[in-house]
Amino acid sequence: NLTLYSVFLTPNVHNSDFANAPLLNTSPNIIISHDVVDIPYNAFSDILPAMMGEEPNIAKIESVVIPNSVESINSKFNMMSGIMGGAFAMCSTLTDIVIPSSVEYVGGEAFMFCTGLDTIEYENGYYLPTENNEHAILIDTNLKAENVTIHEACISIQGGAFSKYISIMLGLITPPDMGDGSNLEEILRDYINMNLQEIIIPENVKNIGVGAFTMCMGLENVVFEDNSNLTSIGMYSFMGCSSLKTINLEDTKLEEIGMGAFASMDESMPMIIEEITLPSTLKTIGEGAFSSCSGLTSIIIPESVTGIGNSAFRSCSSLTSITIPDSVTSIGNSAFYDCSSLETVNFGENSQLTSIGSSAFRLCSNLTSITIPDSVTSIGIYAFEDCSSLKTVTFGENSQLTSIGYYAFSGCRSLISITPPSGVTSIGSHAFYNCSSLTSIIIPESVTSIEGYAFYNCTGLTSITLENMTGLTSIGSYIFYGCDNVKQLTIQSGEVKDLDFSDLSNLTTVTLGDGVTSIGYSAFRFCSSLTSITIPEGVTSIGSSAFRGCSNLTIYCEASSQPSGWSSSWNYSNRPVYWAGEWKMVDGVPEPIESGVEGVGYSDVGEDFGIGFDGLGFREELYFNDKRERKVV
């Protein structure tokens, strides 16, 4: 054995002095003098020769006894050069080490790549401290230790104390037995083991840190002691624990579940968690917290929760029902995205929910109906896109909804009925695109903006009602394009300006309310099945070609003559026109007056030419492109 007597390391001693000592290459056991207080980084390290492709200096070191005088075991990580200098780094034959109670600091890479290390004993037993958690992930990268005992006085396990990602993948780490009566307060990130099957979290643990059990793929059970003081589960804490089946947090004081806490690592390793019980103290479910928990069938979110994070339950493919408590104010983007088995979403009567995020329920292909709480003000883009079984969407009488995002209900092929509430001001582009089963739509008078293709390809749509067009200031293109089966259109008031109903080839009836004041350019162009339209007296403007190509149309005007604001080519196709006094209502249907001199009828003989006569043949009228010449015979 080589013994170093009366060695006191001063700042002038180089970090690799021990490593370069030639006698160390022949001694398997290192006993350090009681005068030594600091072991510098690279002191016994083989990493520098290894990095230079040279033979190791101290390959035969098997054990190290550190005296009580030592206060720190150092390491250094150089971000620029990538040189990692642990005090015992690359001591591949080192099998066991005893760290005395006097040690107050162990560097982040102190035992990095000690691939033969089987046992680490901490005399003090309560923590393995590190100075900088940011680099602590490099501790004990390939540690094989299976027998690590943590004293019951333990208050903290620092980040990376037992692992690095490669250790996870190789399954080289067995975590310590925390023991009964532990006072552990924090379990920080990267506490990982693939072979761990059960972990008991002591009652005094308050926080499970970032990545604490990430990729513990054999972990089947997590037990929280009675009267647990747990308040926080950090992000990625149990990510990739693909054997974990149940989580019972009911008796904890948990307030926050962090990002990806119970999420799968990737699609090839889904989580099989079947049951999760959440405590009444929980406030926040973080982003992706339960993402891809494919075994989860139901979950009760407690009344204390105020927010459901983005992708919180994304791709929980077995989830069949969810109840959102009144306390939740927001559902994050993609919160239930691709929950393909989800059939029921329930909200409380006094829900405080204000927003449904983008893609929140997108691809929930088994969802059949949903009632949107009155408190919701916005439905995000793609919120219910491709919910192919969704039949009904219901809003309350006191709904506060103001906006429906683009593609919000796009691809809801089973949607039969939806009536936007009276407070809605905007309907986004493609909002109801390809809702092929939708039969009717009522657009409330509050709407000021309808973006392009809003109802594009709603092939089952037969009836459209617009309550008031007065406030509609922004109108996109082709709003009803492809709605070939619309038969009835009702516009109660306002201006039919820039709103395009052209090419609705099956439209037979258009009802214009008394409040309608104008009809825009080509508004009803090529509505070839339209047989009649009554134009209210208040219409002061009609654009060019408004009824062009309406080959079966008869026009009834409440005005006694053509107002000056009508375009000279408003009746481009010279359809029959009846003015006030020339027609009457019979059982709610306008009809020409056929006898006496009460009115004049017109017959269409071509696109640009027409001839008219009264019921008795006393009058004749010839007209060419709306320039009429009247002749009495």
Question: Could you walk me through the main structural features you see in this protein, from its secondary elements to its overall organization?
Answer:
The chain has 633 residues and is mainly β. The strands form eleven sheets. Strands 11-12-14-16-18-20-22-24-26-28-30-32-34-36 form a 14-stranded parallel sheet, with no helix packed on it. The protein is elongated and about 125 Å long. Mean pLDDT is 76; it is low at 1-17, 19-26, 77-85, 124-192 and 596-633.
Low-confidence stretches: 1-17, 19-26, 77-85, 124-192, 596-633
Beta-strand content bin:
25-35%
Secondary-structure content class? mainly beta
The DSSP helix count reads 2
Q: Overall 3D geometry?
A: elongated
* Strands, total number: 48
Descriptive keywords:
eight-stranded parallel sheet, disordered C terminus, single chain, about 625 residues, 48 strands, mainly beta
Record the SSE blueprint.
Elements: E1 2-4, E2 29-32, E3 38-39, H1 47-51, E4 63-65, E5 72-73, E6 75-77, E7 84-86, E8 96-99, E9 105-106, E10 119-122, E11 156-157, H2 165-170, E12 186-187, E13 198-201, E14 207-208, E15 221-224, E16 232-233, E17 246-248, E18 256-257, E19 275-277, E20 284-285, E21 298-300, E22 307-308, E23 321-324, E24 330-331, E25 344-347, E26 355-356, E27 369-372, E28 378-379, E29 392-395, E30 403-404, E31 417-418, E32 426-427, E33 440-443, E34 449-450, E35 463-466, E36 474-475, E37 488-496, E38 509-519, E39 532-535, E40 541-542, E41 554-557, E42 577-578, E43 583-586, E44 589-592, E45 601-604, E46 609-613, E47 619-624, E48 627-632
Parallel strand pairs: 1-2, 2-4, 3-5, 4-8, 5-9, 8-10, 11-12, 12-14, 13-15, 14-16, 16-18, 17-19, 18-20, 20-22, 21-23, 22-24, 23-25, 24-26, 26-28, 27-29, 28-30, 29-31, 30-32, 32-34, 33-35, 34-36, 35-37, 37-38, 38-39, 38-40, 39-41, 41-42
Antiparallel strand pairs: 6-7, 43-44, 45-46, 46-47, 47-48
